[in-house]
Protein: Multidrug efflux SMR transporter
Organism: Peribacillus cavernae
Amino acid sequence: MLEWILLLITIVFEVAGTISMKMSEGLTRPLPTVMIFVCYGICFSIFTLVLKKMDLGLAYAIWSGTGTLTICVLGIVFFGETLNALKVVSVLLIVLGLVGVKLSA
């Protein structure tokens, strides 16, 4: 159970790092630029602990898929990114893929 909590924490830091990339404006803003490296450093450090108890394929699929889904939603809500049918279908396919990987584990 602890590995699932740690995996959730890694997803939060991965999303924060990715949002920091957007906010850094090409590494020209100091605080968001530093936050990229801090967030990803924490994320990957904790992810190594997750991998002690969880299969690599399952952990990575959930980490990357959930992060992608979250970033897509946040991009639409906070950064005014477009929402269209293809994006919705593509995100739904990511979710279906996550469910498939989890069920196969």
Summary: The chain has one domain: 2-104.
